[in-house]
Amino acid sequence: MTEDQKRIALLRQIWATLEKLHIVTYFVRECRDAYKSLGVENVWSRYFAGRAAPMGRVTYETIVATFYNFSPSMVKEHAESVWEAAGPESFVSARFRGADNALQRLLGEYINFPEIGTVPSLVYDIALKGSPEGKPIYSANLGVSVPDKLHLKLFHAATLVREYKGDIHNSILLSSDVSGLQAHILLSSIGHMSKEKVLSSRGWSEQQWLMDQRNLQSRGLLGEDGLLSQDGLAFRVEIEGKTETLAAKLWDNLDDKALGEINESLSPLNRQLSISKELPNFTPTYEDLIK
Question: What does pTM read for this prediction?
Answer without folding.
Answer: 0.94
